[in-house]
Amino acid sequence: MTISRGLIINGQEVPASSGRTTPDISPWTGDTYAEIAAGTVADVTRAVDAAEAAFEGWAATAPSRRREIFLRAAEILAHRTEEIIALMAAEVGGAAPWAGFNAHLAANILFEAAAAVSQPTGQTLATDIPGAYSLQIRVPVGVVAAIAPWNAPVILGVRAVALPLAVGNTVVVKPSEDAPIACGLLIADVLHEAGLPAGVLNVVTNDRADAPAIVGALIGDPRVRMVNFTGSTEVGRAVGVQAAQHLKPAVLELGGKNALLVLEDADVDYAVDAAVFGSFMNSGQICMCVDRVIVHRSVAEEFTAKFAKRVDSLPYGDPSDPATAVGPVVNTRAAERVSALIDEAVAKGATLATGTGAVEGNGTLIKPVVLTGVTKDAKIYYDEIFGPATVVHVVDSADEAVTLANDTSHGLTAGVITEDLRTGIDVARRIRTGIVHVNDQSIADEPQAPFGGVKSSGYGRFGGQAGVEAFTDTRWITVQAQGHAHFPI
Questions:
Q1: Cα(272)–Cα(309) distance, integer angstroms
Q2: How would DSSP label each residue in 416-469?
Q3: C-alpha span between 254 and 238 (Å, rounded)
Q4: Which of 59, 193, 306, 311 could pair with 168 as two cysteines, CB 3.0-4.6 Å apart?
Q5: Given 91, 112, 177, 253, the catalytic residue
């Protein structure tokens, strides 16, 4: 039976003002999984109306009450793990390990949001004015527009709203057209079940063709005071431009061209394990995935042979099968794009160490691919792959590895594998990314850590104290006894 879901505005599930719906297609079966309300610009205004009306009351809610809601929401979400695994398999083709991890980390993000509620909100400053107090405090910004992606839908949907809500803002979220339930409606359901008041979190889903108008209306509404977006660099650039035109701050977490550096003293078997996970978790559809494995020549032959053999043996196919390691990509357009990148690289001299790049099944499945010998004139050299493929490059020194890792317009994350921690830390300091992991691959996220990139990977940070600062404004307040101020005129 096909699921039917509406918008969530002011705590109620309602149809789109136009009465239209849009299909939510399963990438594995090609069938319509759900019919979703196709929101309009008028619906955006309704959602912002509700968020604005709820803001003062929510901002004034006692910290203990807000903390209670987030703790309860974390428990509810964790208890719905099996439901989330089934939902992600159907909605985005997510394999069970990835979907289970989504539920686990999303619950932890909610726990961390609960902790953030009672963090200190300011400090006392020095002042030259006798008898006065000078205070710097953090205050919520107001209504936040959140635009959440499909690839880690529960994690990134929760991340888009949890900390903004925890520090006292209200939110209107526009989830991805490819995962409107997992990265939007599900999260609102959980928070409302936990006791979140009506209007504090609103969800506007939409047809893909209407996305530019919906996003434009959301960012352009003068009551929306800031924006957060996670997604591709191309779309993020457009979101950033629109936010800047309206003088609104934005947190943008965008694409990556992430490298795993395997230095000459690396444990090769450990490096292979790291590269397999980093490259092919969620079929390579994570902004942090390893697009490039940069290997020292002294271990390159051994590493590449073992890596290709491991990748060739990865079970791929039906995401509902618990044994599947690599499921389909999100839709046929994505599969065709990834396949075209691989074909073009091979045509320009690259070698397939494993895989073919051919699209299989119903048009969304690609057997995992490892390429060697990729040249700079191939698009895959610089373009983010965002699919089940990675490239092995061979270098002669750690310096050359760093230079190659930095040869990209992106700067999200990286990993360095080495037995020498001093070298590892030195290399990590020289890689121009927002995140580097020594003796680990490039995929990692903790809710208390500052998460984000540099260059074309975006700006601003989610998580921890950096996230609290991103979603609040600084206000300077002075206090002195009446009659003590000196006015010279």
A1: 10
A2: EE-S-HHHHHHHHHHS-SS--EETS-S----TTS-B--SGGGEES-BSHHHHHH
A3: 12
A4: 59
A5: 253
Given a cut of 80, whether residue 303 has pLDDT beyond it is yes
Does the pLDDT of residue 1 top 80, yes or no? no
Contact between 375 and 348 (Cβ < 8 Å): yes
Please name the residues in contact with 475: beta carbons below 8 A apart, sequence gap of 6 or more: 136, 137, 138, 139
Distance CA 35, CA 41 (A): 19
pLDDT at 295: 98
For tokens 């203990």, the residue is: 64
Q: What gap in Å lies between CA 9 and CA 46, rounded to an integer?
A: 7
Residue 429 has pLDDT above 80, yes or no: yes
CA distances from 438 to 258, 271, 335, 419, 424 (A): 14, 12, 32, 10, 6
pLDDT band of residue 489 (cuts 50, 70, 90) is confident
| Residue 289 annotated among the catalytic residues of the structure | no
The number of beta carbons lying within 10 Å of the beta carbon of residue 256 is 30
In the block, tokens 């074909």 appear at 343
Q: How far is CA 464 from CA 49, 142, 225, in A?
A: 29, 20, 21
Confidence of residue 343 (pLDDT cuts 50, 70, 90): very high
Cβ proximity of 260 and 293 under 8 Å: yes
pLDDT digits (tens, 9 = 90+) for 65-96: 999 999 999 999 999 999 999 999 999 999 99
In terms of residues, how long is the chain? 489
Q: 371: closest CA among 232, 439, 383, 438?
A: 383
Do the beta carbons of residue 471 and residue 144 sit within 8 Å? yes
Q: What is the rounded (10 degree) CA torsion for 226, 231, 232, 236?
A: 0
The yes-or-no answer on residue 183 being catalytic is no
Do residues 139 and 179 touch, judged by C-beta distance below 8 A?
no
Residues 6 or more apart whose CB falls under 8 angstroms from that of 120 comprise none
Residue 122 tokens read as 């300011």
Residue 424 CA to its chain's centroid (Å): 26
Asked whether the beta carbons of 7 and 43 are under 8 A apart, the reply is yes
Annotated catalytic residue within 177, 287, 289, 384:
287
